[in-house]
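Re: the 129-residue chain
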Amino acid sequence: MKTATIISRIILGFIYLVFGLDYYFHFIPYEPHHTGKVLAFKEGLKGVGYFYPMIKSIQIAGGISLLINRYVPFFAVVLFPISVNVFLYHTILVPSGWLMGVLLLVPNLFLGYAYRKYYNGMFVKRPLV
């Protein structure tokens, strides 16, 4: 379990760090060939102005955190909605990229399971103030 947790943490951290940094430094070559709903979706997110820089900054912070093994349970929760959205994007809008969604979602779910004892306080039915 410990080895699988370390592997999942490093894979997830590396992917998020690399793709987060690529937004700012453009070192991964690709030619966008999106049309229709995919193009509208991406242009809408870019058009807002703040969304991509915010998400990519969270990805970089989360990736570094996972790689250096600091605040991992916190960043596993913070990165989970991003993993779900990447999975849905790559399975619904761009099915040819489904593997990227799986490579993010599966390790993220596993980390959630591995660190489940740290989430007890999040699942309180009626919290007292």
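Helices lie at 2-25, 36-48, 51-68, 72-93, 98-114.
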